[in-house]
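tl;dr need the bound structure. longer version: we got a ligand (adenosine-5'-diphosphate) that a collaborator sent over and nobodys looked at where it sits. i said id run it. heres the input, straight from their email, havent touched it
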Amino acid sequence: MKRTAILFSAPSGSGKTTIIKRLLQYFDCFEFSISATSREPREGERDGVDYYFLSPDEFEHRVQAGDFLEWEEVYAGTRYGTLKSEIERIADKGKVVIFDVDVNGGINIKRYFGDEAMAIFVMPPSIEVLEQRLRARGTESEESIRKRLGRSAKELSEADKFDITIVNDELDRAVAETKKVVEEFLARS
Ligand code: ADP
Ligand code: 5GP
């Protein structure tokens, strides 16, 4: 079966979840790959919708069972990963898989899908704006904000490993640019 995927990676707070949500309104061929995570749900997040929320022990058990296509300890003590069953679930429906993963995960998934995936890096206008957005989102503790910002310089330096970089300065413009590159990719795949 042909598999097609579009993956989004970026430092946390760059706006990839916001862009993906907007993009999903334009295309009905997409289905979001729901990752597993060992972190606690944020207010409003639902199990099986935003993530599969696993306890650290359950996550470890699934790693040992070989259930993950990839997984990363994105922040110390917090793991995130893509379940193989999730890719099969979406491919069986004939849908295009959309991923929202960290930068290492993005590089690994691109390697797995090759030309069947377009890898998009969402670039914040600056680290200062990234910090402002993370704070304004209001979902993270000070410690979590520091952990996220601590990774961002290294992640930004890996943008050239992706097929496309979208600068998320003005949201409408960034969404329009993303929509255009996605349409071009779908037309040739
Ligand atoms: P990520 O999924 O990359 O961690 P989010 O999509 O959660 O990032 O965005 C982080 C915060 O920044 C959210 O509060 C979101 O509403 C806001 N945001 C996203 N894009 C923009 C933009 N272009 N301009 C201003 N705020 C934005
Ligand atoms: P958050 O806690 O803000 O939802 O996500 C934190 C980070 O984990 C984000 O950079 C997000 O893209 C990444 N992430 C979410 N799911 C996965 C996954 O399945 N694999 C990897 N490698 N990273 C993921």
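gonna send this back to them w/ a short note. The chain has a mean pLDDT of 94.
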